[in-house]
Every structure is written in C-alpha cells, then in structure tokens.
Amino acid sequence: MNAAMLVPVILSGGAGTRLWPVSRRSLPKPFMAMPDGETLLAKTLARARGVRGVDAPLITVTSHAYRHLTENLYARIAPEIAARQRLLLEPEARNTAPAIVLAALWVQANVAADATLLVLPADHLIRDQSAFLDAVVTAKALADAGHLATFGISPTRAETGYGYIQRGAAIADNAFAVARFIEKPDAATAAAFVESGEYLWNAGMFCFRADALIDAAASSCPDLLRAARTCFEATAGASPDAGAGASVQWEAGSFAAIPEISIDYAVMERAGNVAVVEAAFDWSDIGSWSAIGDEIPGDGDGNRSSGDVLLIDVHDCHVHATSRMVAAIGVEDLTVVETADAVLIARSDRTQEVKRVVEGLRERAHATVDSHLTTHRPWGSYTILEDADDCKVKRLTVKPGQVLSLQMHHRRSEHWTIVAGVAKVRVGDDEFLLQRNQSTYIPAGTLHRLENATEHDLHLIEVQCGDYFGEDDIVRLEDRYGRV
Hints:
484 residues, six-stranded antiparallel sheet, 27 strands, globular
C-alpha cells in the first residue's frame, strides 16, 4: 500500500452528559440527531469520506455496545465503504490515548508503518468542508515532516469550556509550533487569551504518522504503550494474518490494564515535535444545549424551538420537544428539553451544568441516566409502554431478516401479539408462524425465539408478567450477535 496513505480514524462514543436527557449511555451524543435531522456521527463520516484515499481503510473506534448502531448507520448512508471500514471495538471507555495508540498499532500492522492517521472525534460540528480539507492538507504536510499535528480554532469569544493552545514560532502558512497547551481557563484568563491573539481553541483533532506517534508514546508514556502492545497481541483479529474482518474487539482483560488518560496528557503535551494548524473552518464541539440552540434559527423574540412547541409572551428561550406538545407562557432565558420520560429545565446561562444533573441521577441509580424508553438492539428496537411492579409492556420492532436470541427467563412469562408483519416463532420444541392479530404465550422457564424472515418490519406487543423484569433475567443459549 501507499506509504503516504491518509487513514481517517473516527472516535465515536463520548457520553455527552451535558446533553442529557437526549444523550444517554445507550444512545450517546454521536448518535443524536441535530436540528437538520442528521447525526453528528453521520456528519463526521461525510468529512472522513472526503479525505480518504480510494484504497485507504476508514477506522471507527467505538464501544462494542455501539457496534450495531454504527454498522447500521454506515450501511444506510455510505454502503460503498463497507469493504474498507474497520471497527475497533472497546470493551469499556478508557479515554483517548488507549483508543488512538491502539489504532496506530493496527495501522502499522495492517496498512503501513508510516501511514498517516487523521483523528476525528465523532461529536464535532464543522460546516465548511472546503476549509476543513485545506486544513487537512496543511496538517498532512506537517505529519509527513515528522510533526504531531493538532488543529486550533481562532476563538470568537472568551470560552471557558474549551482548552487552549498557545502558538509558537511559525512553521508554514497557518502552521505553528505549539508553545503550550492550557486546560479550560477561568473567564478572566480566557478573555486575556482572546485579547492577546496568541491562543487558539484546542479542537481535539490530530494528524500524525503512525510510527511518529508510537515513537512519541515510547518516550512520553512507555507504560501505556507497553500495555497497548500487550492488548494488541492478545486480540484475535488484530493482525493481517487474521483476515479482513470488518471489526476487531480488543481483549477485555488486557485492555482494562491500559492507563486511562487522554492523548493530550499522555503524548501531545510532552512531545517536542508538536505543531498546530490554525484552521479557518467554523467549529463547535456541541458541548451544551446552548450550542444546539445556536444551530436553530431564532424567531422575532429570540426564541429557538424544535418539535411541537407553542410559545406565548416568551423571550430568549430554547425549547426542544421530542414526544409531546410543550407550551410556555411569560418566561425568558430558559432552556427546556422534553423527552418521553424526562424533562430538563435550566436557566440558559447554566446549561454547562447539566452534567451535575446526570451525576445526581447516577447516585440515585435512576434509569434515565442510561436508557430511553426506546432501546436499540442489533435486531431492531423496543419501546417500553408500561413498567409496573407486576407487569411490563413493550412494543418491539424487528428488522427484516433479523432474529432474537434463543432464550428463557426464570422470573417472568411473556405473551406476544403480532401488530404488523409475520413472525417465525419457537416456543419450547414447537415452531410456527404468527400473523397480524395472532398471539402466543411463553411460560417462565421455556425456551423461545422470534424471527422476522420477511422483507418488511415486524411489529409486536410483548406483555411480561412476573416479579422481576430486569435484562439480567435473560438466559441466552444461542445468539447471532455474540451476546451469549
């Protein structure tokens, strides 16, 4: 392969806790739809496709839990890259340094030792693709010269939610040595940075050769590199000898032993060959509901709304409705976010503090921290219609050609009623078809499975009865998706 090949690496899976209640662990920020209806991951994929060479793979680092969400999204919007995409699946989140170093090791083994990585977080918004491509060209030239390149954005305000990069000596047009990295400053310091003209927002995107990053890691974080190599060697499918599978799942035990640290702390702030591209494109990390509101045109009263919303004598508010009518009267400077099972109300200048709500809910083990009423599965999705002490009711959608696992439950029975489509069902040793308005009963302790062998979505209502309805009462004997 071409030694100068540019390989996009998308980092997908950030929790996005400041965008609760829409972003949750089961459907995090990269999979959130923006006001235009497109997800942040889809937008990042479009940018990556714009720079990827014909023969270059496109790598996505994500959680095993998001594998099928990612595959389904890619198949829908970019089916032509299926043969060249590679998913590197993490058993757990351990920050960006393990993700990027393991990606570099994979590229060294499967592409070329000096192939160039372009690292793109999946939860950023960039509109100006042309200016983005220009910045990538500059960053690629820096990487070819042996630099570890990052991207900086000229600040438009004294932002305390971003890190900053101080520019050093000029290297080329719009390219500078990095004098230092600065963590999120207080308001006065941020204002001084903007006033000086010497500082850029740290966009968290990188461009470097695989061998240059590995060499820098060997000097700056040798323990991390050693642990990453151990994980790489322990993982079946990580090397080219294992074939051209579309995904690699890092071995869980050795992955957990890799230090949890960002690539900024582990490498970029310690290396001596770091450069920054002063990018001309617009950029947002969509880090708060205020940033979401900025993407919606305002009305004459300064309000920004999406969904079914009615505002009377309301000023400078952002109202986001997803499942119900939301009406407001006589309020101002509020952010209101409604979902089917949770509502956020905050003063608009305090939306950066939503993370505190998530922390409080996590202390209470509240279900809304992790899951929506609608949960996506490899085979489709289910929506909880009722969740009581003595029963639980779900509406299931099973995609064409998909099948639920062969399973049983100890503490609940189930009753399935077909709403639309045709289901192939196994209950105990019996197999049969169920059509619209037909139903079947599955006693507790009975093996069962459901399959949609048709070309259309299958919809059914599932009524569970018993004394416990947790997902850990599922005993899987066979599963197409590797969940046994």
